[in-house]
Write a structure and sequence with these properties.
single chain, about 200 residues, alpha+beta, six-stranded antiparallel β-sheet, three-stranded antiparallel β-sheet, 6 helices
Length: about 200
């Protein structure tokens, strides 16, 4: 964490530099998350008690929306000044990080802030949204999920046929969503013009 802090201290979302390490975080440094139904790991109250140095290198940071999905970053990430209300959006079968910023041209460079490798977990993903689907249907669906991950240039991690948890690993962000049509064919697209389906990667 200390070495990572040395690399990242002085860079924050507003672009200003900090010339010294603080013993306690400023109000700007603590990440913001007020959206109902979202939570972080470590919890927000623990983040609020961290120093700026610790906030610059939070290990295994995660944003979770129960019943929808979760994002867990690898290693230590810089969460100082991050407006999680805007930066992270988790919907059913759809996870977006820095989607608005990408459209605006303000997304942090790959390898900085939250634009880093992470594992995405989509909750309750079943063939035709049917948890009671047969084992054969779920096995066929799992194979389609593997193909979808490859189309998104992501690594397929696992699919739990019992609870519907689908995990993929990405190197960086904007938005990753799964679309399944009526005949159960999973699709991934890189075209931002397709409504509701954006797999753009900067």
């Amino acid at each position: 964490a200390n070495s990572y802090y040395q690399q990242t201290v002085g860079t924050s979302d507003n672009g200003y530099a900090s010339g010294r390490q603080k013993s306690s975080p400023s109000s700007f440094s603590v990440p913001r998350l007020t959206k109902v139904g979202y939570e972080t790991s470590p919890p927000l109250d623990e983040l609020a008690a961290m120093s700026d140095a610790d906030l610059a290198a939070v290990p295994n940071f995660a944003v979770i929306r129960p019943n929808y999905g979760a994002v867990q970053w690898e290693g230590a990430v810089d969460v100082r000044g991050t407006n999680l209300d805007r930066v992270v959006v988790i919907e059913a079968k759809d996870v977006a990080v820095y989607h608005h910023e990408e459209r605006e041209g303000t997304k942090p460079a790959v390898g900085t802030k939250l634009n880093r490798p992470a594992t995405l977990t989509y909750f309750q993903v079943f063939p035709k949204d049917n948890p009671a689907a047969s084992v054969a249907e779920k096995e066929k669906f799992a194979a389609k999920l593997e193909k979808s991950a490859r189309r998104m240039d992501a690594d397929f991690v696992s699919y739990d046929m019992d609870n519907g948890d689908w995990k993929i690993r990405v190197q960086h962000f904007s938005r990753y969503a799964l679309v399944v049509d009526d005949d159960d064919t999973s699709q991934a697209s890189e075209a931002e013009e397709v409504v509701g389906v954006v797999f753009s990667q900067a």
